Amino acid sequence: MSIAEQRTAEAAPGRPLADLEIVIPVYNEERALEASVRRLRTYLDESVPFPAVVTVADNASTDGTWSIATRLAATVPGVRAVHLDAKGRGRALRAVWTGSRADVVAYMDVDLSTGLDALLPLVAPLVSGHSDVAIGTRLDPNSSVVRGPKRELISRSYNLLVRTVLHNRFSDAQCGFKAMRRDAAERLLPLVRDNEWFFDTELLVLAERNGLRVYEVPVDWVDDPDSRVHLASTAMGDLRGIGRLVRAFAAGGGRAPGVSAGRRRVDGAELARFAGVGVVSTVAYALLFLLLRPVVGVLVANAAALALCTAANTAAHGRITFGAEEPVPTRTRVLGNGVVLLTTAVLTTVALAVALATGGGAGAQVVAIVAGTAVAALVRFVVLKAWIFRSHTSTARVHRAEASNLP
Predict the structure, then answer these.
(1) 275 and 203 within one domain
(2) Average pLDDT of the residues in 365-374
């Protein structure tokens, strides 16, 4: 949207250049807007040690939201308001960030679901130049999240889908608490096509594809029961966006001029290490199966051999395939191993049932479990890479070490 299409009201003419500009995109939020803006403005004045401005971006509201926004801009120093004639969170962020004079641009939801104490940790690596993009994550073990099981399941499923299909390293695409350096925004925004809810995911995926560093901050987050998000239409839009990015990347698109490409998510060396560990693990599994088979029977021997090998296999992949040195949280390790074990057990049991039904002996049964394990290898790789060791690889460790030196 052009500047001519925006109606802007500012707190005072000639306000000083802001180091930080926080956008609050709103649509029909007359009940929550004033209290949230005043609370945020008070926090910035009392706790943030550099200039900051709050911009309310009204997405064509039909209630009293725009009137409240303009009144706040006229009476509260450090607040301004921008009106857009069309809906879309991405459209609002694009319009404000494109014209911002701040060194760092950010946004947060109007309900302030994310605790404000995470704001300084969010913008500090950007102000210092350590990182290009910073996001709040609700999926870190150190995050405190209050929301219903339905939204929890949807969020985790969506982020797992994005990581599996688009091979990103960030954990939480949809948390409404993000910031980036203005120079990074200037490079990436022309590449982002979505103007609605998929805007966040597309921006982050493009940032990683172009070699920009994305810094994650654990947050305290409380679900807003009055959310304006329509889950069905949003989910369909997200799926279309993911498909569009897959097609664009396959054609070599998604590159910003002047930004070098980042490390590919999966490389040949990593796959070779994964295959090597898999071969050794499969041989050990087959030997255990043959050893236990005469004692406890075919199916019990298969389950026992799998249970004994799965934990050792995961540990070997962590050290050898993914270079993880930090300990993985027990809950993540147990749940991840459970998914791998269940998937492999189902596939190998079906294969064994076929072998037994056709009268196959020990040789045919070994072939069956090896085949089942091979099919399960894809699930194993995704679970290990995108879940268990997602934030514990050597690359993530280097970024954390650097971040620990931030002022």
Answers:
(1) no
(2) 85
Please count the structural domains in the chain: 2
Same domain (yes/no): 276, 225:
no
User: Residue 103 catalytic?
Assistant: no
- As a whole number of angstroms, the distance between CA 308 and CA 209 comes to 39
Question: Which among 20, 120, 130 is positioned nearest to 78, based on CA atoms?
Answer: 20
Q: Which amino acid, residue 205? A: V
Q: What gap in Å lies between CA 179 and CA 98, rounded to an integer?
A: 14
Per the domain annotation, does 12 fall within a domain?
A: yes
Q: What are 256-300's pLDDT values in tens digits? A: 875 444 444 455 666 777 888 888 888 888 899 899 989 998 889
Q: What is the pLDDT of residues 177-212, one digit of tens each?
A: 999 999 999 999 999 999 999 999 999 999 998 989
Q: Which of 58, 103, 200, 238 is catalytic?
A: 200
Q: Whose CA is closest to 159, among 374, 391, 346?
A: 391
Distances (CA, A) of 334 to 6, 315, 327: 52, 12, 13
Whether 35 is in a domain gets the answer: yes
Tokens of 263: 């490390």
What span, in angstroms and rounded, lies between the C-alpha atoms of 219 and 142?
A: 8
> Is the same domain home to 139 and 219?
yes
93: in domain? yes
Q: What is this structure's pTM?
A: 0.62
